[in-house]
User: Fold these one by one.
Assistant:
Number 1:
Amino acid sequence: MRLVKLTAVALLGCSIPATAQAPDFSKVQIKAEVVAPGVAVLYGAGGNIGLSYGEDGSVLIDDQFAPLTDKIVAAVAGLGAKPVKYLVNTHWHFDHTGGNENLGKAGVTIFAHENVRVRMLAGSASVPPASPTALPVVTYQDGVSFHLNGDRIDAIGTDGGHTDGDTALYWRKANVLHTGDLMMNGAGFPFVDTNSGGNVLHLLHSLDHLIKVTNPQTKVIPGHGPVGTQADLIAWREMIAGAVDQIRQRKAKGQTLEAVLADNPLKPMEKPKAFISADAFVKAIWASLDASGAKPHKH
Ligand SMILES: [Zn+2]
């Protein structure tokens, strides 16, 4: 779980050293960007927040950190949106669920994949168990659909991959996809949290499904990074698949993990100051290949 912590801290912003526990939340500003009528993304610190707003009320997708809740609520109001009625967590990581307790106390109904509730209840070595008001109240495996604000928003319970409880959301009319951390735009390698049931093969299955759901006009809100397109989603999937193929071939030839790490075949693809190093990604792929077949694929 140490990797989770360091990675999430690293994702907060380039200026924050890995040793920092948290950013100075008093200095964080929440920036809203309207991506389609009634759909916005809110940037601050932590995972990108999605928002559906309109005559029926607001649906928030993820909520970053507890000290930011007031600013997030103010940013929602700043768009002329009604108060938040529902919240969907794309997965359990603390930079996506930190505001749950505040919003739960305010009467917001929280939705998530059932494994989000399981992991939040249990906590981990570095994350304490969540308080009851922070927990999802409505859980699902395959997904659930919201019929409001003139659109249908499908919360898709994917095959996971980043964790074992990843949800992506697709606005059918607005043609917007929120991927959660199944995609991090411009981040280099993906973060496969094997301590939270993540698996790179499941990630590829989930991405294949999301590519099928979208089209070239779809606006794609990633878990971190700027809004992208289906082409970005496809390129991300191809990069991951290429890396997996390289490691799989070496494993099939009988190379050990130590030998693969010594060769460092993914090093040329590594981005400077990347959140996930080539070594870390090789290890995650290796663990995923070892665990393959552990979970049936839904899609
Ligand atoms: Zn995450």
Number 2:
Amino acid sequence: MKGLTFKRGIHPNYRKDATAHLKIELMLPDKELVFPMSQHIGAPCTPIVKKGDYVYVGDRIGAANGFVSADIHSSVSGTVKVVEPRMTLRGVKDNCVVIENDGLYAVDENKESIKVEGMLTKEQLISCVQSAGIVGLGGATFPAHVKLSTPEDKKVEYILINGAECEPYLTSDHRVMLERGEEVVGGLKILLQVFKEAQGIIGIEDNKMDAYEHMCKLVEGTSIKVQLLHTKYPQGSEKHLIYALTSREVPSGKLPIEVGCIVHNIDSVGAIYRAVKRGEPVLSRIVTVSGKGVKKPCNLEVKTGTSFRQVLEYAGIDWEQTIKIIAGGPMMGTAISNVDVPVVKGTSAILCFTEEEAGLTTPSNCIRCGKCVDVCPMGLVPSALQKSAMNGHYDEFLKQNGMDCIECGCCAFTCPAKREIVQTIRTAKAAIRSKK
Ligand code: SF4
Ligand code: SF4
């Protein structure tokens, strides 16, 4: 069967073999867990606990600050040590709640559950998803309840579940589909109960045929479709997934609902199932730990708040050989210099690269080969955008639709001069946003 896809894009070396066959292992954390109050796109949470408070597993410790924000919960039981700014993955200090884990994983049996019994309304669904602190667990960390709060005049025609997992190395979604596929289908069924007229489609790249076949079996007898996608990066980008699955194009600066779509990640829709059916907030996430710098590549279920250092030591990091550590995938992830930062809701992978994998090179002048233009999935001219950005010509940058750049890295990947196109564009976008 031929997989659907989008225009342009690239075929990097996927290097998923090291972990694709490895079952998810539960890793229990050490004594101290750090919970940043900013784990999502939107306003940071307000801490609602103080030093000395006892918290149970699942207790809310950070309250959402406004609609575009998501609650934060303790993944362990124990005592609040301190509430203070600590270094986080963002490379800056954020306000954090630090909890001393008592190792009991005690649950407060008297706490009111967010679970919803029977048929739920759209309002109940939104409230439950927000209370569970569910965000885009593919890495985007956009609060999931915001996506579900569709305007009354917009019809939801498709609910698309992103099982593409197009970033090299990453296999956490692949394993979730194989090992926890019932939760994914269960979460999608809940969404389809609320958005009754929508068609549910799960899109899976054709380098995960075992997951595709397994999910096809799980949806038998339902209206849900499982669609094979051609393996190509960035297939999992929201706009490109929509195009591949529905042939619809999201206009510049607009959201998927403009073309009748809601898109959720595999793990996020599983989290919706766990919230609605079991009353469970987001307490952990599945993290692929890979790269030649680790002796034991793995897919781990890691409690949020656990330090990167502990995860890396669990996977047998070779500190001597590892020259680059990336949080997330190699295309869109962030290189980090401090491993004493916590795993948060959006941490899909931790990659440890040796010199050979990191492929560090020095950028040289643009040779105007046009290769970056050929691969840009947004139809932009990356070389021209970089030039405008470097010269601070932001009006020009806007005219060239620079804000549409999804920072996928296809241009930099293909550039023979190894120019730092994405970093330059990202900086320009941030400068334009802050000016606004
Ligand atoms: S310009 Fe942006 S969207 Fe286009 S390839 Fe480069 S990073 Fe991707
Ligand atoms: S791929 Fe690199 S060298 Fe070629 S046009 Fe684009 S920026 Fe210039």
Number 3:
Amino acid sequence: MSGETVVVVGGGIAGLATAWQLARLGARVCLVEMEPAAATHASGRNAAIFRSVDMHPDTAGLATRSRALLNDLGVPGALRARGVLLLGPEDRVDALATRAREHTVRHERLDPNGCARRAPLVAGGGGTGGLWVPGDGVLDVHAVVQALLGRLRAAGAEVLLGCPVALSVTPGGAQVRLADGTVRQGGAVVLAAGAWSSALAGRAGLGLPLRAMRRHLAHLGGVENVDAEHPVVWGTGPDEVYFRPESGGLLASPCDEAEGPPGEPPIDETVAALLAERLGRLAPAVAGAQLRRLWTCQRTFAPDREFVLGPDPRAPSVVWATGLGGRGMTCGLALGELAARAALGLAPAPAAMLPGRLLPPAPGADGVAAGG
Ligand SMILES: Cc1cc2nc3c(=O)[nH]c(=O)nc-3n(C[C@H](O)[C@H](O)[C@H](O)COP(=O)(O)OP(=O)(O)OC[C@H]3O[C@@H](n4cnc5c(N)ncnc54)[C@H](O)[C@@H]3O)c2cc1C
């Protein structure tokens, strides 16, 4: 391992988790975040649901590793395992159960009565049943972020907040220009800038086709007897929607998606009607809920919705750790470990996540002569 400083751009879960693992591996680390506080964007404005069973083949494995790293972090109550109930058409629930079995995630198939017993707010919602995942639940995101910052500082890492940076690539490797004009060059630069990653890299000629997709969250009140320990409920069918208890009411999302430029997306008030409609169908007891607050943030996706992690083949000292989509709070700690190992050349990133897959094939790479 070289003694050069690794610069991590972005103080969301991807950057914090990568920087923590770099420090654990003995590397010198500098984490730079443009906002005055860490986790200001997606990592601080999400639903905080730890959901280890979905249709991605790698989620359950990464969630299991993240859970272990959460224990290493030593934050009491960081994951409140109040259970996640996944509802949906029978074939979808079957497929999720298969996924859970493959990864030995504890689960149980429930009929509609069993669902209502576990999650009383879905009583009367119809449907054919669901999948109960008792070990999943809700993260204390603030505590996790503070613990990561604490670990970084204790390890002597530099943490620069309020420090937007620019990236460039020179024959000597990647360079990062800090807000005060100073330049860092030497070791790897990890791009963990969420929705901004592609624009940041693009100015250094390394853009990738990532998309920033807005999603709304709502805080709802006016629902009788919301038990703070009620499980998370996720309708996984075509009318996707989820909710969980929060501050005496419910936190819910209609799982909307709209592409936009990286930044603070505007709120679309019409989403409230979509949420009410979807919630009403899934959980009639919630149909009369009143909207207390609506907010948005962006999730960042590669076209294939797989993570983007590993060295850029055009400039290998630039290491991507982005495209966390809607799974970043669940998988982020494990992804940080993978990114740190890739940045230090200790282990290659998983092939399915490599950024090179998003580049057009090099001329002649398919065996056809490039010309002349
Ligand atoms: C509405 C919503 C609900 C969600 N719910 C869940 C959920 O329940 N469970 C789950 O697992 N996931 C959820 N997610 C997904 C999760 O929040 C994201 O996958 C994760 O936060 C992405 O983390 P990140 O570090 O890649 O990005 P971010 O948290 O956005 O961090 C990127 C950071 O880079 C900084 N930055 C950008 N450009 C620069 C620059 N030039 N210089 C310095 N710093 C820069 C930004 O300020 C930002 O802080 C949700 C997301 C949204 C939007």
Number 4:
Amino acid sequence: MSGSAVQVVFKNIHRPNSHTLAVYQEFGGYQSLAKALTMAREDVIDEVKRSGVRGRGGAGFPAGLKWSFIPKEDARPKYLVCNADEGEPGTCKDRDIIRFDPHLLIEGMIIAAYAVSSEQGYIYIRGEFYREAERLQAAVDEAYAAGLLGDNILQKGIRFHLAVHRGAGAYICGEETGLLESLEGKKGQPRLKPPFPANIGLYDCPTVINNVETLAAVPDIVLRGGDWYAGLGVAKSSGTKLFSVSGHVNKPGNYEVELGIPLKTLINDHAGGVRGG
Ligand SMILES: Cc1cc2nc3c(=O)[nH]c(=O)nc-3n(C[C@H](O)[C@H](O)[C@H](O)COP(=O)(O)O)c2cc1C
């Protein structure tokens, strides 16, 4: 699937039964959550800020900065929403994270929720991703049974509930405010901005919305440190990125590479070169 030396969001996908909690934990899964819960919430946000990771859903907004916009002295509930709508033609990267490593996403979400004091999260998944939604739900169920989700996470008195919500297959519901409308049960039409979701989001409450790949990078950022992640990629575009390569190449697929590599390298060294040379 991938040929880059450093793997962050695809580090587990080659393992048999990588989607199960048992395999995820065997290879260090949920250690990052345990670490995060020993840190102050602000320090988790700072670590993500230091990593420089930018949103992987398209707009490239720095994730740590987005989290820091959630008002702290505010009695309203805070929501965390994962954008798994992935409707962009030719893009199928989030789908592979969900299929092969759903616990990586769930762990990233629990850490993000802790950082912004959210007790309720949603994964809004594209309607056509039927089997992926099933697999995700199975992973959520496993996480609840293991005390990784719920009212007393890892017996630390931290609360976070997570629901999988299937969309109906509308491209526009990938846009974050259209998504929120749809999640509220309305027609998925985008809202005017400002106000931004960090202040007026789901049910008019402070809301963080991040893409699957963004949230899946969080466990490694917290466990290995923001500086480690910032050392990957190039200045201002740190870390690794999934690229879905299709068309006339010898090895179409999803590839995780450090940001900044030339397109030619991606095509030739990873996707096997252009068909027929
Ligand atoms: C028309 C349109 C469609 C979009 N579709 C998606 C999508 O399918 N998945 C996604 O993560 N972001 C999509 N976005 C971007 C989201 O609005 C938003 O920026 C993103 O979910 C924020 O997460 P991030 O900061 O982690 O990237 C879309 C934006 C527009 C304008």
